[in-house]
Automatic annotation (TrEMBL), chains A, B:
InterPro entries: CBS_dom_sf, Mg_transptr_MgtE_intracell_dom, SLC41_membr_dom, SLC41_membr_dom_sf. It is a multi-pass membrane protein. Keywords: Magnesium, Membrane, Transmembrane, Transmembrane helix, Transport. The chain crosses the membrane at residues 281-300, 306-333, 354-376, 382-407, 419-442. SUPFAM superfamilies: CBS-domain pair, MgtE membrane domain-like, MgtE N-terminal domain-like. This is Magnesium transporter. It comes from Marinomonas profundimaris. The keyword Electron transport does not apply. Coiled coil: none annotated. One of its GO terms (cellular component) is membrane.
């Protein structure tokens, strides 16, 4: 799989490729592979390759692209080209790309849609893009609660969509009544009313549910799909295993990118100015925290001038606090995400983390103290750094528990902002403890 | 869902709970919810709660626990209790918990298994635990290639396992021949030979495939499950959507924990000594890199003594390099994971990252230079830090591209070790540039 994509990347970058050779390569790949290859080449070549791709394949590829890549490409197209692209767009595709389009083009696409698709689009667009309601699958097996088994089987013969292992039953007003699993249906007699076969344990998902929560519910159900209902129990469609797998895959990518303050939609070859701008914001936030730490060091300028070894060892104190703190933070952030942390176990947890911190603090303060003693031949300096390490690791354990819990209470995602705040706290606590003790004991 | 778990946690921590009240609460929850609640309370209470849980529910709960939590619990049980626990264990459960068991107990469990399950266990255990072969699902619809449609439909009536949307066909020796989708089967005539209906596009997964790769393949197929074959095309079983969803969910958790050098199996209330030991290793590795940075600062002791402001500003230089580097690193690590980065686009990528770094370097060096000028009233110091920032951000861009690519070539996972190596490089480069320029221009 990957090597075919690599081949296509190679072709698109190097060769004086013809439209024919590209379209031949594309015909053997899925649209998401082609999208990936396009995202892997510089913008100039990407534009050229796009011009050579057959109109019929373009929309599918565009839909599979990451947000920023798609925006960059759409920027290069004129309205006539975009209009042509959208002659055949359905609700699901338009919902996927709508955030990268100006309103004018969304309207243009909507005007070309049939009524059913337009209705689906308008149902979906009212939901945020991390919510099930936005990504509902509308291909489903649906039957009136008043039919018999034989009629349900006939329905099944007509068409069985992917990820289907049950028939959903509704009443006359479209309200969900329940579901009948295939294996029950297959065993039943043809004349039996289907409403006798309803699965009492069948669950459903509310359309306002977050995607990751919905994926967890689907996994627990051991079913290939669950019905999605609105607040009035009207059956809107399904959330199926394909959507759940996609949810987790993208969540995984988003989490990885977020650790560096990046968005998962980022393009590998975004224009320099644009990349510099998005990354600059994160650099600026971190610069503020670094200057804050510097300001605290500045308080001790006089001490540093007399004992320059303190300056040399500052990174050691900061590093130990930062690492110990992020270990505690990570454990707590996971616990919060899993719903493990409640008022009742917070105290035991804090006490356990402080004990772990104390033990590692003592152990590493001895190691660091001895290395310092040997390096600078000053027992007093060894004592100062040893004490500072213990203080900083304990402070790290305390902040590692309290910062995420506090952020969570304030409804701020601790996975995103926790680590910047924590590092700032441990940096400052470490420098103040180290340089403060140095001032007291070494001058 | 979460609030029920929270209630159970509360009950288990506070109340003088009776066996009856626990088992009542448990009967309303799934085994993984109970496992989660047990993992959320201190070890003493956990042991007590376990003693009150009915024997019939224990194995399911144990299987759902995270590795470390399971180990901690098993350590408390004597052999008779464990033997009782394992009277009813199947291959899948034993494969899940086998790594937390001593060999003696694995043998004990195997002795109580029936032949079929023991065979499945022995088939699975030869694979690593991140490989499909280990987690194969053995409940599947399988038919001889020589039967007719009507016979296949009868098979379906007998039992339809979860996540099933096709029948797998094998020849007499158990080799995979192909698959027939339900929607084709339902439309066919009863007397038609099933081998006429084989889906030409049906793909399969080799048993050596990594779990995340398998999940991607399954997602692309739009099927609920794919057949898993060994190298000789013998049909071993299935990889289904439930396994794929679990794979991603656990991968997501593992990635989060790995950022702090932790394992996803870590217990929230692991004993203090044990936690301290595992975390201590990561602290030690980072300590080495911090001392390395200190050693480089030490070279410039004489300079620091004369210009103490350099010491005050060191965190700013280190922070900017570290953040800029990790942004590039993250983008490249994702690109490598997606298969986007090849020999052919590496040069364009490096040049683009250097341009982004150059732009941000110039911008932020001006900001930082001006702040420094204003703070320390020294234009020369402003110049020194400005130049150091540019050098360090360019160095960060260079290392951010080259370190992960190099690690990948050496078959070391850049997602794990990349960030430690990168920070060490940017720290040292930053300090040397800053203090070196300071020595040249300020003394």
């Amino acid at each position: 799989m990957h090597s075919q994509v690599a081949d296509l990347i190679e072709t698109l970058i190097h060769d004086e490729h013809s439209a024919e050779s590209i379209n031949k390569a594309i015909s053997e790949l899925t649209p998401d592979d082609v999208a990936l290859a396009l995202e892997s080449i510089p913008l100039a070549q990407r534009k050229q390759a796009w011009a050579n791709i057959k109109q019929a394949n373009r929309l599918d590829i565009l839909v599979e692209m990451r947000g920023e890549s798609r925006q960059l490409l759409l920027r290069e197209l004129d309205d006539a080209e975009i209009e042509e692209l959208f002659t055949d767009v359905d609700a699901e595709d338009l919902l996927e790309i709508t955030d990268s389009l100006p309103d004018r083009l969304v309207d243009l696409a909507l005007n070309q849609m049939d009524n059913k698709q337009r209705e689906y689009y308008q149902q979906g667009i009212v939901y945020d893009d991390d919510v099930v309601g936005r990504w509902i699958d509308h291909e489903l097996l649906i039957a009136s609660q008043s039919i018999r088994v034989s009629e349900a089987l006939r329905l099944l013969k007509k068409s069985t969509p992917s990820y289907t292992d049950m028939v959903y039953l509704v009443n006359r007003t479209g309200r969900w009544v329940g579901c009948v699993k295939f294996d029950v249906l297959f065993k039943a007699q043809g004349h039996e009313p289907i409403s006798n076969l309803i699965d009492e344990e069948c669950s459903f998902i509310n359309s306002e549910t977050e995607l990751t929560k919905a994926a967890e519910m689907l996994e627990r159900s051991s079913l290939s799909a669950l019905p999605v209902l609105d607040d009035n129990h009207i059956l809107l469609g399904r959330f199926h295993a394909g959507l759940a797998m996609e949810t987790w895959r993208l969540e995984h990518e988003a989490q990885q990118m977020a650790t560096a303050g990046l968005n998962e939609e980022s393009d590998l070859f975004a224009p320099v100015k644009r990349s510099a701008a998005t990354r600059g914001i994160w650099l600026g936030i971190n610069l503020l925290t670094a200057f804050l730490a510097s300001a605290f060091i500045g308080i001790f300028e006089a001490t540093l001038q007399q004992v320059v070894a303190l300056a040399v060892l500052m990174p050691v104190v900061a590093s130990m606090g930062g690492i110990a703190g992020s270990q505690t933070l990570t454990l707590i952030v996971r616990g919060l995400a899993l719903g493990q942390i409640t008022r009742s176990n917070l105290k035991s947890l804090l006490s356990k983390e402080l004990k772990v911190g104390g033990l590692n603090g003592i152990l590493w303060s001895i190691v660091i103290g001895v290395v310092t003693l040997w390096w600078f031949e000053s027992p007093m300096l060894g004592l100062v750094i040893g004490l500072a390490i213990i203080v900083n690791i304990l402070m790290a354990a305390l902040s590692g528990v309290l910062i995420p819990v506090l952020l969570d209470k304030l409804r701020i995602d601790p996975a995103l902002s926790g680590s910047v705040i924590l590092t700032t706290v441990t940096d400052i606590a470490g420098f103040v403890a180290f340089l403060g003790l140095g001032t007291l004991l070494l001058l």
